[in-house]
Structures are given as C-alpha cells and as structure tokens.
Amino acid sequence: MKILDVIGKRCPLPLIATKKALKDLPEGEALKVITDSETSRDNVSRFLQDNNIKSDWSKSGDVFEILINYQEADLEDARAEDYCISDPPAEQGFVIVFTRNYLGEGSEELGKILINGYLDTLIANEKLPGKMMFFNSGVLMVLKDSDQLEMIRELEDAGVEMLVCGTCLEFFDKTRDLAVGRISNMYEILDGMIGTAKVLTV
C-alpha cells in the first residue's frame, strides 16, 4: 500500500498530490491519503467519487485516512483545482506583514536569529495565516540567498499566499532575485489587509 501524507497542506495541494499518486500507482495497489483537514477529506472524496474511484475514510484523533481501492480511470482531463473548497475562514483569518528582515528593535543580528525562530514556530502552528506580505527590507527574506527562504517556501507549500512589494524589489534592485511568492502592488496588498480579520505586523 502506498501512503500519501498531506497533513498541513491546503487545497489544492492534497487534490493535486492525490491525482498524481493515482496516475503513478501500480495496478492492484491501494493508496492511503492522510490529512488533518476535514475540508481536504471532503474535497478528495468528492474528486474520487466524480471520477468513479471507490474510497472509504476513517478518523483517528485529528487525522483522516482515505483508503482508495484504485480502479483504472481517465484522470487526464480531471482538474483537481475545480474540487477545491477552501478551509473555513477562521483558520486563515489573519495576515502577517513583514516590514523588515529581522524581528524587534535593538540588535539587528539578534533580530535575524529571532525571525528564524518566529518562522519555525509559525510552521508548527495549527493555524496559518491566509497571506504573508513583504515590504521594505522584508523583501530580502524572499530572495535566492535568504536564510529564511526554505521556511517561507514550506509555508507557501502549506497554502499561505506570499505577496511581495514590487516597488521595494525595484528599490533594492532585487526583482530578478525573487525566489518565492509573487510580485504584488499596493492596491492588492491593501485589499488583502482590509479583507481579513486581523493584521500582524513584524
């Protein structure tokens, strides 16, 4: 049996990963998808049902297990993204704004150590922000040579949207060095702040 662990992943990643795993699954082998999101369980189950693939699910603690007895199906034209219903807004009811590439006042050297700890703790948190935004020297955190790059990528893989100030990248002449997230503008960033329950500024 093949195990697909998508714990902590947000839609559409669990659906896309399930579709890929099914396409690569040897004939006669079963697939077990493990998720900690009830929404992802429902999305994956609906995707399977609509494509005539039999499955059963069970729950152990906070984890859902979807057992798939795969039968050959044409998944080439099945768009996993079309089955994506987002997790409840309460789980992503805040955004984090990074205005610099270190945490706190005083020693910048210490602040860079603290920002790493902040991101590491955020990754382990059950509730993730819907968006992370980067201004001023905060944009240095999402560049190719950033010490925080892998942690930010991990958060993006978990479904956190990364918005990076385009004007700030141009100011530092770092537009070509952007390695994670996407370039955004002040209109979109402001709209993202207004449309959320809470904004945390670092």
C-alpha geometry: elongated
CATH topology of the largest domain: Hypothetical Protein Ychn, Chain: A
Strands side by side in the biggest sheet: 8-7-6-5-9
- Kindly state the mean pLDDT as a whole number? 85
Distance between termini? 44 Å
Return the CATH architecture of the largest domain.
3-Layer(aba) Sandwich
* CATH class category label of the largest domain: Alpha Beta
What's the helix-strand series? EHEHEEEHEHEHEHE
Largest sheet: 5 strands, parallel
Query: How many runs of DSSP E, i.e. beta strands?
Result: 9
Share of residues in helices: 25-40%
User: How many independent structural domains?
Assistant: 2
Radius of gyration: 19 Å
CATH superfamily of the largest domain: DsrEFH-like
What is the beta-strand fraction? 15-25%
Task: Work out the helix count.
Answer: 6
Going by helix content, strand content and strand pairing, the class is alpha/beta
Low-confidence stretches: none
Task: Give structural notes.
With 202 residues, the protein is an alpha/beta fold. It has helices at residues 13-24, 38-50, 108-124, 149-157, 166-171, 186-194; strands at 2-5, 31-35, 54-60, 63-69, 94-98, 131-134, 161-165, 182-184, 198-201. Helix 3 (108-124) packs parallel to helix 4 (149-157). It is elongated, with a radius of gyration of 19 Å. It starts with a strand and ends with a strand. The relative contact order is 0.14.
Task: Name some characteristics of this structure.
202 residues; alpha/beta; Translation Initiation Factor IF3; Hypothetical Protein Ychn, Chain: A; 2 domains; 4-stranded mixed beta sheet; 33% helix; elongated
